[in-house]
Amino acid sequence: xxxxxxLVAVSVIAVALAFGQVQKVRxxxxxxxxxxxLEKWIEAEMEFxxxxxxxxxxxxxxxxxxxxxxxxxxxxxxxxxxxxxIYRIASVTKTFTSTAILQLRDRGKLQLDDPVAKYLSWxxxxxxxxxxxxxxxxxxxxxxxxxxxxxxxxxxxxHKFPTHDEMVALLHSQESIFEPETKYKYSNxxxxxxxxxxxxxxxxxxxxxxxQNILQPLKMTSTSVVPPTGQLPRFATSYGRRLADGTRxxxxxxxxxxxxxxxxxxxxxxxMGRFASLHMREGQNLPGQILxxxxxxxxxxxQWVLPGWRSGRGLGFSxxxxxxxxxxxxxGFVGGNRSQIxxxxxxxxxxxxxxxxxxxxxxxxxxxxxxxxxxxIARLMSPPAVETKADSSWQKYVGTYTDLAGSDAEVxxxxxxxxxxxxxxxxxxxxxxxxxxxxxxxxxxFRMAGDEGSGELVVFxxxxxxxxxxxxxxxxxxxxxx
Length: 482
Prior knowledge:
This protein is an alpha+beta fold. It contains twelve helices and 21 strands. It has two domains: 2-381, 3-Layer(aba) Sandwich (Beta-lactamase); 392-480, Lipocalin. The chain is 30% helix and 23% strand. The strands form four sheets. Strands 3-2-1-13-12-11-10-9-8 form a nine-stranded antiparallel beta sheet, with helices on both faces. It has an eight-stranded antiparallel beta barrel with strand order 14-15-16-17-18-19-20-21. The protein has a two-stranded antiparallel sheet with strand order 4-7. The radius of gyration is 27 Å and the shape is globular.
């Protein structure tokens, strides 16, 4: 217990120090200039597209760096859109359902490769592929179950969603579209069914589980599964697309009923920043750590890659390439509410955007904010570079080596670092691809580090004369070339 208290205290101190650094980012002239440029661009874009309102938050690690509202939460009342305005996060709800599933897996309540029918006796449908495997929890998380996209009702048209009994009854008459784990097919129905798995495995309702195990520990006080009456005045008005005469339809606040685990939650961009911070705790143990770091990494790692090799699905998250970074997150769209949460592990930066109109594209703004602000934040938060000098004793390792098969390798000092270059045949287009940094590990012992390092040991065996006799690289040997 004492050791745990010390770890928590260290973590709290680290967060406090990070907060001080984040304040420096907010005040930094370079960041301010980029932020102002982004603000002006958002304002111009919104005016051009006639959007009613937009809210955005940018988070670095565990701290909000910047948030702002643009335009109006309600056009008629001229209610300003703010970072505290509540909106429907729609399909971003799926990331909460997925977080709950992984919590229950870590607690031993279920396994990801368990058949869904193990937890839900009513889970039956017209299976077009009876020889195929049973649908599993993992397949629902990655949208590879082959189930239809929706329950058999037109609720995205009329906003009349099925009750739970209706969804179950309709499922029995619905056909699978693909054999499980053969194709990606996004499925709100599948994620709704996962909400029932949460309830069955936990022994409590979906809503109470999400509130007690995610929202309360993360202090997400403006986030709800079902909107409480007291928060309704804070909701953004939901607008349809801009019509030819410039008007917009207004949507009533909908209730997704049985589709709740896929689409019903509400939040603010500031609260969603807290959720994003959870998902940037891969290597940390902080108060409110409701998932361990290894589980978070598992959720964010691509489990299914789409044919273009630019995007795929993690466990409940989308994963995609954005310029030179990998971004995980999710988008949401339901009746006048569009949202996006994007996290870049490269810079440890998250961007959350909400727009209260059908024709807004939050990912467009989130991507621009990420490309403009994330590199600046990461650079300002990085510790100052320390000039290192090569150890003079490394000179005895420098030289050309060969193995018994006649393949050569070179040990050299480059940019004050000891490096190992392994030749390949035919030679690679870029020799840097085979360059591994050797970081000291012990007496005549190094570890292959850097982007091209394997993480394994390199041990120089020295003769009585102080010269290298042979070098153990991983489990093989190379010898000084005569």
